[in-house]
Specification:
With 194 residues, the protein is α/β, with parallel strands linked by helices. The protein has six helices and seven strands, in the order E-H-E-H-H-E-H-E-E-E-E-H-H. It has one domain: Maf protein, CATH 3.90.950. Helix 1 crosses helix 6.
Length: 194
């Protein structure tokens, strides 16, 4: 039986809208944790994106007893041994992530600047615990470019443009979160579809 409502463990309007758009064809209403009445902010102390996503999903599921999804994502730079990774949001003070990354990579040649955004989405419904993952592969540029997007988008090159130079529609087609949400769509359709 298809579920008709699920909670996303976030109050981020952009993440919520993306999930609502991708899951809309299934007829699923996606609520923010605030809309569902979950007032929790669990400590994300996992060592992987999947662990952190599951921590958030479990906390919200425990609060509202509705099917819940949560995501955790970040930037993994090969030349930095996968850093900043799960610490992407805490890598630098707000607004200084790109500058710190460019400084740390200033001596790394173009062919060694590969990186990827990784996204893990946790889904919990009763005894069902599922992790769906996706990545967006590219490289780190030598300067920040573009005014769209947020976080590391101005320095992350996908082809010859940064993610911050792409329109929201272009970015959603290739983004790690969009891809992981499409994996979730497939999982929900197969598991709960008619």
């Amino acid at each position: 039986m298809m579920i008709n409502k699920l909670v996303m463990a976030t109050n981020n309007a952009n993440k919520l809208r993306e999930a609502q758009e991708i899951l809309a064809p299934l007829g699923i209403e996606v609520l923010s944790q605030r809309e569902a009445g979950a007032d929790c902010d669990p400590e994300e102390n996992g060592t992987t994106f999947a662990e952190n996503a599951m921590i958030k999903a479990q906390a919200v599921y425990d609060a509202v007893s509705l099917p819940t999804i949560a995501d955790d994502s970040g930037l993994c730079v090969d030349a930095l041994g996968g850093r900043p990774g799960v610490y992407s949001a805490r890598y630098a003070p707000e607004g200084q992530h790109c500058a710190k990354l460019l400084e740390e990579m200033k001596d790394i040649p173009a062919d060694k600047r590969t990186a990827h955004f990784q996204c893990s989405i946790a889904f919990i419904d009763g005894d069902t615990h599922e992790i769906l993952e996706a990545a967006c592969c590219g490289s780190i540029g030598f300067e920040a470019k573009g005014s769209n997007g947020f976080g590391y988008d101005p320095v992350f090159l996908y082809g010859d443009k940064t993610l911050a130079e792409l329109s929201a529609e272009e970015k959603n087609k290739i983004s790690h979160r969009g891809a992981a949400l499409r994996e979730l769509y497939g999982f929900l359709k197969e598991r709960y579809g008619d």
